[in-house]
Design a protein that fits this description.
This protein is an alpha/beta fold. The chain has 11 helices and 13 strands.
Length: 365
């Protein structure tokens, strides 16, 4: 059993993906080839965003968004410590300070009720994370940002395709930043990512930043990075887009089936005004090490997203007291992600559920 079944997905899409890759090999425009603009137009239309800027990774998407805001040394960006390191990493690389706000115990997304108390005169932006495939409380976050004149960057690395109050993740705030890492809901065969915005000025800044700050060839208008998405990776995503609608439906069905079959096992809650694309299907268990060991013995792969919150990581500990985000710290000890992808069979899902229930029962004795 695969934790994320990319082989079955490729088998289903092989003719299209192979043909698109071959076209790139034939025309030879490996950097900023025609597939780049084609993908940007397709993704903008899918999300409902005015602009899509493809970039080299989800990390580059966050960094370029922050750089486009022209942050100054000492500026602060509010985010959550219960996320992958790239969220805080890019804030520090952009010259700002991450200010951590704890998460909700049931959704694992940022606790909106705690945001406003952390805003200071140095705050420039809020960066919520749409964890596990479910969008954070963006309406409330945007309202707070509007009251204080702040930008909002949705870290949508895990939630591409998700809906929030009828709108797509990525198109809900100043910037939306997503990742096409292979295991993401929409992935390429390497690194890739995209930025979304409705702001013409910010879009132009992002486009310049991703090509070393160039507004024209060898005219470096601003500080930039080498942040382009390869043409070959754009071709792969274009191929995968052909059945992405079906994959979203399948993820929703499998997620609902997990939820029903695992009643009584604590799991991430999905709010009624949104859905989840279930980048991971995550439960909370006690004695996680014992549960994981039992699942491994049963042939069921698992993962932990994430075993240590960022304010407990050596690189970021100085930005926060060790006890300031207790919910994140507790979740880091209990979360466990189960196999999940659009090509997960119901038979394999039944095996996962049976093994998990047995493991939890044994661990609880």
């Amino acid at each position: 059993m695969q934790f994320t079944d990319l082989k079955t997905q490729y088998a289903a899409l092989k003719p299209s993906i192979d043909a698109r890759i071959q076209r790139v090999l034939d025309h030879g425009q490996y950097i900023m080839g025609p597939e780049v603009q084609e993908l940007e137009q397709a993704l903008a239309a899918f999300t409902g965003s005015r602009h899509c800027i493809t970039v080299a990774s989800g990390t580059e998407a966050l960094l370029i968004a922050l750089m486009a805001l022209d942050l100054a040394p000492g500026d602060e960006v509010i985010t959550t410590p219960f996320t992958f390191a790239a969220t805080a990493e890019t804030i520090v690389l952009a010259g700002a300070k991450p200010v951590f706000v704890d998460v909700e115990p049931d959704t694992c997304n940022i606790d909106v009720a705690s945001i406003e108390a952390r805003i200071t005169p140095k705050t420039r932006a809020i960066m919520p994370v749409s964890l596990y495939g479910q969008v954070a409380d963006m309406a409330e976050i945007n309202a707070i940002a509007a009251r204080h004149g702040l930008a909002v960057i949705e870290d949508a690395a895990q939630s591409f395709g998700a809906l929030y109050q009828g709108r797509r993740s990525g198109a809900l705030s100043t910037f939306g930043a997503t990742s096409f890492f292979p295991s993401k809901p929409l992935g390429c065969y390497g690194d890739g990512g995209a930025l979304f915005t409705d702001d013409d000025r910010l879009a132009q800044a992002a486009r310049e930043i991703r090509v070393h700050g160039q507004s024209a060839r060898y005219t470096h208008t601003r500080l930039g990075v080498g942040g382009r998405m390869d043409t070959l990776q754009c071709a792969v995503v274009l191929g995968k887009l052909e059945r992405f609608g079906w994959e979203l439906e399948r993820r929703a069905a499998l997620g609902a089936r997990y939820q029903a079959l695992l009643q009584g096992v604590e799991q991430v809650v999905v709010r009624p005004d949104r859905n989840s694309v279930f980048a991971q299907f995550t439960v909370m268990v006690d004695d996680r090490a014992a549960v994981q060991k039992a699942l491994q013995a049963a042939g069921v792969p698992t993962a932990v997203h994430y075993p240590k919150p960022l304010h407990h990581q050596p690189a970021y500990a100085a930005h926060c007291c060790p006890d300031c985000c207790p919910v994140s710290a507790r979740l880091a000890q209990r979360v466990l992600s189960l196999p999940m992808s659009a090509d997960l069979s119901e038979a394999d899902q039944d095996r996962v559920v049976a093994a998990l229930r047995a493991a939890v029962a044994t661990a609880g004795q």
